[in-house]
Specification:
This protein is of the alpha/beta class. It is built from 13 helices and seven strands. The chain folds into two domains: 147 residues, Orthogonal Bundle (Cyclin A, domain 1), CATH 1.10.472.150; 72 residues, no CATH class.
Length: 273
Amino acid sequence: MVVGSGIVVAIVAITRRIVQFSGTATVPEENALQPVIPGALVYNGADLDFSDEVLCNVLIKHFPYYNNLDEPDKEKFISRLKQFMQQKSFVIHDKSGFREMPILLSATAIMLSFGLELYMLPYYRFIHIFPAEFIGVVPTLRVLAGNVSGNSIHISWKHFLQGFQLPDDGQNVGLHEMAHAYYYQYFETGMKADLGFTDKFPSFSTVGDLVLQAEKTKDNTFYSAYGLSNLSEFWAESVELFFERPAEFKEIYPELYATMVTLLNQDPGQTYL
């Protein structure tokens, strides 16, 4: 996700009201798959070992989606969350890390994939967390709030927090980048795919392309200009809108909303009632 225009010089500090890690980060080492920038903090998910109580407390405080689940689904969510974190390395490009970082970023992936059978994103071993906007150099020099490249997901913590502090504005960089990651995982990596997702995605593409073209020819502001730039960005922005503005989405584009309910096997419009 691109942020505005121009190069950001000042880096905005991480919100300090969240709790620091109590564990010790590993020393960054060169990895054959993903070089780690010297000076970054690296936390292996398998070593974090958060208790269920800690996970629940963080989710209750910061993650409305979890609060709206029934008890069996809350248990399922926690189980998936722990398994997901154990398979990732969290690379924090700052002097200190916060336990909410791996928990909430991972919870966003679990939220998006909660209705799917396969949810682990095994291709994406690294989640890079920056305090604010960061510079991307491929394919061009850009200021980014998030992107997916190589076997890594990159997120600006400032923009990630904003996405959940404003839960109904249709903008959530965490959901946006996870949407890209799940698409690439299932369609581009050659690894085992969730057939429930891949078999149903063509329906989204067909209906979505019609909506995309209609949005371009109408004075409609439901999607941003960036979301209409191509079908990949349209998919990622559709996920943001699906979870953040489900009632409006369903009213404006009921057929597209219905395809997403089927595709992701969940209905935020019902969950949030």
